[in-house]
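[agent] plan:
  1. take the single chain provided in the ticket
  2. run structure prediction with default settings
  3. attach structure tokens to the ticket
  4. add a short note for the reviewer (M.T.)
[agent] executing step 1
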Amino acid sequence: MKKIIPYILSCMLLSLAACWEEIPQAEKPQGLIKKENLKLLMIDLYIAESANNMRLLEKDTALPKYPVLYKNILDKHKVTPKDYENSLKYYSEDPEEINAIYDDVLERLTKMESDLGGSSTTQDEP
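[agent] step 2 finished; step 3 output follows
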């Protein structure tokens, strides 16, 4: 009986090893945006979206202006909408990687707000 236990354990380990399949990494899409460039692009897009939402753009033209701003920002960064979308999908395949990107973007936006004298918390009313 003692001789059969190592044999059974070996068979179980071999069975588990045979079933173990490594998850394939997603293929890099054509036009993949480098992480640093993606962060800068996202910062510009979030600032434009925030300005639109806060109605810092002219009230009568705020809605039609955002799509134009979006296109201009992508053009500034020499990125197509498809490349932006595909890059986000690619980096989202790895939750840790996309979270690190978003964390860095948030950190930079918070620093920019702080440098401008803003506050990310609601101010107390007098």
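[agent] step 4 note for reviewer: The helical segments are 4-19, 35-53, 62-76, 81-92, 95-115.
[agent] ticket updated
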